[in-house]
Amino acid sequence: MSDAYYLQLTEQLRTLIDQNAAQWKGKLPAERPLAERFATTRVTLRQALSQLEGEGLIHRSNRRGWFISPARLIYDPTRDAGFNDYVRAQGRQPRTAVLKLESRVHPPAARALGLPDDQPFQHIRRRRYVDDRAVLVESLWVVPERAPELLDIYAGQSLWGLLRERWGHYLANRSIRMVSEALSPLDAEELSVAPGTAGLNINRAIFDDQQRPIEYDEEHWLHDSLCISVELSGQR
Asked: Using only C-alpha atoms, what is the Rg of the chain?
């Protein structure tokens, strides 16, 4: 098939999705009937579907098929609002699953916080959902001295709410790094997508109001799940 046909098929699929989104209730028909509908091969169909996936219109879930992507979450990584708060503020439903609680070293976190490479951390691994779609997996690396026995009491609640209420820590300074990525096999498996799926990596090094290192966050988002929006103000 020519490139012109592949692009034409992409536009035909876009129109079909727009016209049938409500009827399909978020899930596209299987690839075989779609290919038959357009009298094309599944290889060419997948090219067109992948194009729409790259645009964020649809997404694929392992062993479940293709789905229409919901509206992107508006996300400001510089704000102090927790995940649950800003998801609910946009009329959506958040959920968190704790995947792992452990103590171990993690040199990238130590270096970001200005600590020795052999600094141990309390590691929290969790998966976060918006409207029952897994959109994010993250690792939180907390300095043990700042939150003794954290792993014994953590159960998926707001980490910074817990740090503030139980140990009196207030977020004061942080550095934020964002870069596009191809999801690793582990991150992809935990998000039920194929390895190499486009993602967004957001890392934060966080310090309290006394300039003490508190934690390092490593977030791995699905690329079509959020829109980064940062509000800035200043004087000339």
From this structure: 21
- The number of beta carbons lying within 10 Å of the beta carbon of residue 190 is 19
What's CA 5's distance to the chain center, in Å? 34
What's the rounded Cα separation, in Å, for the pair 196 and 45?
20
Domains and CATH numbers, the chain: 3-68 (1.10.10.10), 73-228 (3.40.1410.10)
State the maximum Cα–Cα separation within the chain, in Å, rounded to a whole number: 66
Query: Model's pTM, two decimal places?
Result: 0.84
> What number is the average pLDDT over the span 144-160?
94
Q: Which residue has the tokens 């046909």?
A: 5
Pairing of strands 73-75, 226-228: parallel
**What is 110-161 written as a DSSP string?**
HHHTT--TT-EEEEEEEEEEETTEEEEEEEEEE-GGGSTTHHHH-SSS-HHH
How do 171-182 and 198-208 pair as beta strands? antiparallel
DSSP secondary structure letters along 38-77: TT--HHHHHHHHHHHHHTTSEEEETTTEEEEPPPPEEE-T
Q: Phi, psi (5° rounding) for residue 80? A: -85, -5
Nearest to 128 by CA among 215, 190, 66, 177: 190
Whether 216 contacts 138, CB under 8 Å: no
Confidence category of residue 3, pLDDT binned at 50, 70, 90: low
